[in-house]
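Hi U.,

Before I forget, here's the chain from the pilot set. I'm dumping it here mostly so it's searchable later in email.
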Amino acid sequence: MQRPADVHELYIRTTPEQLWEAITDPAWTSRYWYGAFNRSGWQPGDRWVSESEDGEVYLEGEIVEAERPSRLVHTFHVVDEPEPAAEAPSRVTWEIGAEGEACRLVLTHEGMGEATEEYTAGGWAYILSGLKTLLETGQPLHIG
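Structure:
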């Protein structure tokens, strides 16, 4: 059964270039993505990983499309938990567009199996809120 896509749309007071940098630079991702460093060459065919500071890989995938600074598509495969790791990779699309003094970011995560959907439940809202807060204030978002 095909599960519905998880779609998030938000506006961030930043430029497309700064937003792209925050999505693709591990020094930025570690400040809003649960402390994870997202690493890749960010070119189609390159491997993508989300890992701890000491190199433990949580997520991996492959870059499918990269049109700096407007579009990034990559596969998404959970590797640190057995149930979602047994599922096929899903797909994440980041679409960035300038809107006046802000950027419109639409993130679409599609093709998830049930375990991957459970693994990511609430995660994108937390990650994207942290990304927005960091870009607009320069400070990480601390919840709880």
